[in-house]
Amino acid sequence: MDPAESFPNTVSAAHSGDRRAYETLFGRNLPVLVAYLRNRIGGAMAKAETPEDLAQSVCREVLIDLPELEFGREDQFRAYLFLQARRKVLDRARYYQVGGRDPGKQVDLGAGAEPAASAPSPSRVAAGKEELLLAEQAIGELPENQREAVLLSRVAGMSYAEIAELKGQSESAIRGLVARALSRLSGIATRAGILPPADGPDRRPPA
Questions:
Q1: CA separation for the pair 90, 194 (Å, rounded)
Q2: Distances from the Cα of 28 to the Cαs of 37, 78, 159, in angstroms?
Q3: What letter would DSSP give residue 23?
Q4: How many domains is the chain built from?
Q5: Are 85 and 151 members of one domain?
Q6: Range(s) of the domain holding residue 12
Q7: Which of 128, 70, 84 minimizes the C-alpha distance to 136?
Q8: Helix, strand or coil for residue 151?
Q9: Helix, strand, or coil here: 195?
Q10: 3-class SS at 114?
Q11: If pLDDT is split at 50, 70 and 90, which confidence band does 192 have?
Q12: Same domain for 47 and 141
């Protein structure tokens, strides 16, 4: 089947309840959507809601809206999905700001929310979690415009053109944001000990 025809059919099938079509649209985008949201939420929202819950909410809302939307290609769908995730974060942030909502009274859905998973060894799991935490902390230190650009580019896998359209900026501006973000991440990683300095003192003396 012509790809130009198959993707709209996938969209229609997903809305009709076809599980395989749903996985094609949402399942393979969910991990990067969660990673994106994890680095976009903070403050009271981070205490009350998990990135996983927000990602599922975004997917449900987009699924409901599918009959009103037209996507000829998967990259168009992915761009829309992340646009809705961005809007979700802004909406929820306003919710927690209005009325001085007390985050201490919100239910912390993050506690114990991570499902148990089979793994080769506890030490490997611990190492993986530590690396993930360090990476998330490094990304969290970036200015917001750089953080979002690098997440969309390197985590969500969107092209510079897609990100430029999403954010209403030029493609060259997005390239610059991503380049500065990657350079800054390298410096943060070096200071945190994740990467050795380029000319650090750990050089071995000649034998």
A1: 32
A2: 15, 10, 17
A3: I
A4: 2
A5: no
A6: 1-103
A7: 128
A8: helix
A9: coil
A10: coil
A11: low
A12: no
